[in-house]
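U., I forgot to send this yesterday:
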Amino acid sequence: MKRIEVVAAIIRKGDAVFATQRGYGEWKDWWEWPGGKIEAGETPEQALVREIREELDTAVSVDKFLYTVEWDYPAFHLTMHCFMCSLLSGAPHLNEHEAARWLTREQLSEVNWLPADVMLLPLIAEELNSNPTTR
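Result:
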C-alpha cells in the first residue's frame, strides 16, 4: 500500500481553531486541518511553516506537537503529524481550499471531517479547554 507522510496545523486563536474545506480531489468538500506533504530534507515543523505559507499566505508559529495519526484510506496509508500552531502575521487567505471557519470547542462537530482528522477532535477540544485566554 502506498504511504503518505504529511503535517497538519491546528491553528489556534483564542478559543477557536482554523479548519479548511477541500476544494479538489476525491475528498472535495470534506473538512481538514491545513498542511501537506513533507519534502525531502525537511523536518515536520519546517514543512508545516512552508505549507501554511503556500496554502494560506500567512506565517505560523509551531507551538506544540499534538499527535501523530496513522490511518488507512482505501488507496494509501496516511501518517499525519499534527501540531498546535498560532498565527504570526496576517489573516489566512485561501489559495487551495474552498472555505474555512474558525471553530470553537462546541462547533468542532459541525463540519464533515476527513476520517483521519476526526480522531483529533477530543484532543483539540481538550486543548481549547486549557488556557482558553492565553493565545
